[in-house]
Structure prediction request, 458 residues.
Amino acid sequence: MSEVIKNTGNSLSTSEVRLCIGQPAPETWHPSFTIVESVEEVLSLNSPVPMLVIALAPEQQDEILIDLRSQPITALSLIFVVEDSLLSPYLANGVFDEGFQNHLDNYLNRLQMGKLYDHGNQEFLLLSYLWLHEDCQLSPMKMAKEPCLYHYPLLSSWDMNPMGSFIWLSKLCDKGWLETAELTNRVRYSPCCQSGHLNYIDLCPQCQSIDIQLQSSLHCFNCGHVAPQEDFRKTSSLSCPNCLQSLRHIGVDYDRPIETQRCNSCNSLFIDAEVQASCLDCDTLHSLSSLLIRNLYRYKLSLAGRLLVHQGAISNLFANQAGNQMSFTQFCWLIDWQNKLAKRHGQIHSILAVKLLNIEQLTRENCDFSQLEALQERISTMIRITDACSQYTEEGLLLFLPFTDKEQLKIVYEKFNQLKGLDSLPIEFNIRAITLPDDMGENVKDWLMDKLAAAESL
Prediction:
């Protein structure tokens, strides 16, 4: 992590951390500041900078914010602004007001609690940022002039490519360290150049011409002739230009075809035009199905992410010894393979799902994280070296227990039940079990989730 975190063991008084870039208007509640004129002057101090205030014009302020967030010594700092600007909602921590001291005290407290060192790891840097700035979320910002259309300003200040950041954040969610807070938009990009500057055009499905138009047509029942309505109009009445039959009653003499569009290039009639996307940057036509789709979310730190920052080397509540824990995707592959072996050789295996129901209560601000670490130690001793485990939600553990039937599961259940006896940490478990072999179908994940949902709690 940056020098800010590396120096959390030092005792810092609030008078040592009040830097101001610019000169704010005097207020009675203002603390004493150390006034600096530039980011270079901040960096020349060569010491952690927990809090800064920026009192500059909005344009200068945004440039300073980018510079501060890009520097290791200030990337995680608590930064206030005197007035909002374009980038302040994404890179600053609010407007400087009388309540700043509460924010600073909370920041310094969380600074002391954090144990995650990034050593150049941007994943850990982001987790630490979201941890230090409570209730902070990583939000996308629109950039209509750029091909990517959106970016995450905080990640951009760390020199991260906007398109790459979308995939990077998705992987952090897969690891369970981040979770989505809100879907803000859904954007489509060209698969050739990954530009979001697309023009959606209607084409003739027969000849691909863009020269099409809406047309009102008539269909003569007498001879079957179909033509534009104007061709059938004769003074104040309608008659077929092909057979000269007078058309008086719709549904009896004639009707209107459902094809309402006509191509001026090949004269074909059709109901719906073919829609394709033309990239305005690389001039390539793409079918809608071939476009790259990105969901843009606001992200927040998950429970597993909070535990990771606090515990350092321990990545989640149910972390087991090296080699035993696997990703959920690997776990699904494993049980699919073992299910096929069980069918062939007449074996019986069990899958146990253990969910900690009151995890949020246990991880509140006033909770001692050491209690959770003690719980973690107890759980890890219960897992055999031949068992496989995976964390499928923040508070849920999946265990694959080979050659274990339902009767033998009672012993495992009793061990978990004994954890409820910890006086200092009230625990509420929900445990469900299913057995193999079974008919899984092609989607193992859906089968597993459906079976666990239908299984009764032990």
About this structure: The radius of gyration is 32 Å.
